[in-house]
Amino acid sequence: MSTCVTITNIRAILTQPAGSRLIVVRIDTSEPGLYGLGCATFTQRPLPVKVAVEEYLKPLLVGREVDRIEDLWQLSWVNSYWRNGPVLNNAISGVDMALWDIKGKRAGMPVYDLLGGRCREAVALYRHADGSCPEEVEENVRRWMAEGYHYIRVQMGGYGGRAGSMHTPEGAQPGAYFDDLAYARSVPRLLEHIRGTIGFEVELLHDVHERLRPIDALQLAKAVEPYGLFFLEDALAPEDVEYFETIRSQCATPLAMGELFNNPREWMPLITGRLIDFVRMHISQMGGLTPARKVAACAELHNVRTAWHGPGDVSPVGHVCNLHLDLASPNFGIQEWAGLSDAEREVFPGCPEVRGGFAYVSDRPGFGIDLDEAAAARCPCKSFVDTWTQSRLPDGTLVRP
Ligand code: MG
Fold this sequence. Notes:
Order of helices and strands: EEEHHHHEHEEHEHEHEHEHEHEHEEHEE
Shape: globular
Number of helices: 13
Largest sheet: 10 strands, mixed
Radius of gyration: 21 Å
Bound molecules: magnesium ion
Strand content: 15-25%
CATH class of the largest domain: Alpha Beta
CATH topology of the largest domain: TIM Barrel
Oligomer: single chain
Helix content: 25-40%
CATH architecture of the largest domain: Alpha-Beta Barrel
Distance between the termini: 50 Å
């Protein structure tokens, strides 16, 4: 093995094979044919990430040794002086994962082996079951159960449970309306229905999506306690996390949090204070595999489990990174899984296989996934303004989505 392989080029490739705009970083090296891929997907703001990668990280990193992942992560993190923002963290993540992919290829090992080796044979996944009424949610839960899934997140009417009719003022602005209190009252009813009809043979999860005020979130966490949730997700917004202590002191509903976090100061107090049960950061948003593996180890020492964010706006490269870390973490809890379309599988050869509610990754060196650039180019990113983030309460007040 050559001792000094260097970075020769770094590109950010944008593609949209399904609903979300994806950004993947490719690093080429001085060794012919050796390259790596990383996820840098910030689907709402892809172009600033591309600029951060190609105009700032590329000139900083070309010519440097590919093996020095930790040093290059630290260098990239402080180079802008201001740090921990979503654009720059995603850019660094793309480079960071690509370097882990390269290191695995150089070692002839899958990334999970670089991280200490498998703790399990496959990764248990949870799927999302929605519906307009409890009976429809039940039907969708049963559909996932028939495919072998044992963990299912149940929602009614999407996040915040949009009500059919809402009393709004004249001239109300357009937006994604929801009624927070009607939503909060609907969740225990939904869980009562599912437990009453299906029972306890499946693990149920629910995502509040930071839609409630802290006192209402506290009431909900207490009200759902008898239904034995696997976890209650984002019961609070990142701006309200001090209220976790209050929720914790009044009920034993397991709590999961983290997909909006950027900064170590956001997750550290929740882990060390034993205020949550699952960390579920978006790995590209926090800066890549290098910080995520440290968080996984820190959480393990505090008996907190992992449930990394895995929605549609993570590229298949990012999903595979989640899965390699899941395989190697003794404190793995569960993995969110949004499913991959045929178009995504065509653009990204080597996607994981899913059978019986478990994901299986390839044991090829690195992450074992590739990017077909010609196929990616056939799926260019569309330009549009996000509207789902324009959430409003019945009186028209704009709130967090
Ligand atoms: Mg969520």
